[in-house]
Write a structure and sequence with these properties.
Radius of gyration: 21 Å
Shape: globular
Number of helices: 13
Distance between the termini: 55 Å
Largest sheet: 7 strands, mixed
Helix content: 25-40%
Number of strands: 16
C-alpha cells in the first residue's frame, strides 16, 4: 500500500495539517493509534490565541465553526492565596483575544471537516524506517505497513517518527500534574465552584499549586502541580482513588477546604501527568521526505501554547506544501526554518512562566506581571 502524504497522529496539529491540505485539494491519510474519536477524553479547556491558533483555523476555513464553540465568560482569571483569600480577580469583559473552547469539541470540528476515511483509527505505529530517495515505510503494531513519499510525525511527546530526524528524547522537568474532575460544581460543590469563579483559578505556592478551570456544564477540571521527583509519585497507588487523593492533598495541609476539595472530592480516578520536555533549541538537519510538528517537534512544559503551536505548525506546513507541490523539499525546508526559532522562543517563555508559577517567590512575581499586562 502506498500514499503520497502520511500523517501520524490525529491530534489537533495533524488534523489541522490534513484539513489545510484538503482545502488546497491535496489528499492525505492520517493514522491514529486510538480506536475511535471517542476512545478517550480529549483534555479540558484551551485558550485559542489570535496570533497562532486562530490564524491556523482561518487557514483551515473553520473560523465560523470555531466561534460556535466559544464558551463566553471563560477568560475570567483569579488568583487565590492558600487560605482562599482572593488576590486578583479579573472578569471576562468580552475584549479578550484568547477565547476558551473545549479541546474535544475543537478536535471534532476538524474531524468533521475531513473527507470520510481520511483518518484510519486503530493504527498504532511500531516503527518507521527510511527506504531511500525520500520514501519511508511505517510499520504498525498489527504488522501492516504503509510506504509514503512524505511522512509527517504529529504523534506527540513519544513520537515514533522523531528518531528518523533526531536522537533527542523528552526529559522529566521535575514537576508533575495530578488531574481531577468535579462535576456539576455549582450544585454539588458550591463553595469550590465559587472559589474557582467563572474561568481560570490559580492558587500557587513555591513548588506546588492548584490550577482549575470551569468547563461546560459546571465541570471543574483541576491540575494539581507538585515539584517532586518521579520516584516520589511511584510510591502512590493511583488506582486507589481515595488513598491517592488523600496523599496528594496532604501536600496542601492548611489550605482552604474549598481549594483542597478540588483534590479530595474528585469524581474521577486521579491521573498522574508527569511533565516532560525536549531541549528548548531542539532542531534537526533536513532529511528528505519526513518532518515533525507539535509536541513531536518541540515538546515543552505547559504554557498555554502547545495546542496553538501544533495547529499553527499544521497550517504552516499545509500552506508550504500547497505552495510548492512540485518541490516538497523546498516546502519542508521553509517550514522547518520558520518553525525552529518560533518553537524555541515559545519554549523559553514557557520555562520562564513555570518559574513564575512555581518558583521560590510564587505567586508574587506572576501576579505583578499579570497586573501589569492588564
Amino acid at each position: 500500500m502506498s500514499n503520497d502524504i502520511t500523517i501520524i497522529g490525529a491530534g489537533l496539529g495533524g488534523l489541522t495539517l490534513a484539513r489545510v491540505l484538503h482545502v488546497h485539494g491535496i489528499p492525505a491519510t492520517v493514522y491514529e493509534a486510538e480506536s475511535s474519536p471517542r476512545a478517550r477524553a480529549q483534555g479540558g479547556m484551551l485558550d485559542i490565541h489570535d496570533y497562532n491558533g486562530q490564524p491556523a483555523l482561518q487557514a483551515a476555513g473553520l473560523m465560523e465553526e470555531f466561534r460556535g464553540l466559544i464558551l463566553e465568560g471563560r477568560e475570567a482569571t483569579r488568583f487565590l492565596a492558600p487560605d482562599g483569600t482572593v488576590l486578583v480577580d479579573v472578569p471576562d469583559d468580552g475584549t479578550g483575544e484568547r477565547p476558551e473552547v473545549q479541546r474535544g469539541e475543537l478536535r471534532q470540528i476538524l474531524l468533521d471537516s475531513l473527507p470520510a476515511g481520511t483518518v484510519r483509527w486503530g493504527h498504532k505505529v511500531g516503527s518507521a524506517r527510511a527506504l531511500g530517495e525520500g520514501r519511508h515505510e511505517v510499520t504498525f503494531a498489527d504488522g501492516a505497513t504503509v510506504v509514503t513519499s512524505l511522512l509527517v510525525g504529529a504523534d506527540g511527546a513519544w513520537s515514533r517518527v522523531r528518531p528518523l530526524l533526531s536522537d533527542a528524547t523528552p526529559e522529566y522537568t521535575g514537576r508533575s500534574f495530578v488531574e481531577t474532575y468535579l462535576y456539576d460544581g455549582d450544585t454539588r460543590h458550591p463553595a469550590t465552584a465559587k472559589a474557582v469563579g467563572d474561568g481560570s483559578l490559580f492558587a500557587l505556592a513555591p513548588g506546588k499549586g492548584i490550577q482549575a478551570h470551569r468547563e461546560r456544564g459546571g465541570t471543574l477540571h483541576t491540575y494539581v502541580a507538585l515539584s517532586r521527583p518521579l520516584e516520589w509519585f511511584t510510591d502512590i497507588d493511583f488506582t486507589d482513588s481515595a488513598a491517592a487523593t488523600a496523599r496528594i492533598a496532604r501536600e496542601f495541609d492548611g489550605w482552604a477546604p474549598e481549594l483542597t476539595a478540588l483534590i479530595t472530592d474528585s469524581e474521577t480516578t486521579p491521573v498522574l501527568r508527569p511533565l516532560h520536555a525536549l531541549p528548548i533549541e531542539h532542531r534537526w538537519d533536513r532529511v528528505p521526505g519526513v518532518t515533525l510538528l507539535g509536541d513531536a517537534a518541540h515538546l515543552a512544559a505547559p504554557n498555554g501554547e502547545g495546542a496553538n503551536l501544533a495547529m499553527y505548525d499544521g497550517a504552516e506546513l499545509g500552506k508550504a506544501i500547497a505552495a510548492h507541490r512540485d518541490d516538497i523539499e523546498t516546502a519542508l525546508s521553509g517550514y522547518e526554518q520558520a518553525m525552529f526559532p518560533r518553537s524555541a522562543a515559545a519554549a523559553a517563555e514557557g520555562a520562564q512562566l513555570n518559574d513564575l508559577l512555581f518558583g521560590d517567590d510564587a505567586p508574587q512575581r506572576l501576579i505583578t506581571m499579570f497586573e501589569q499586562g492588564q
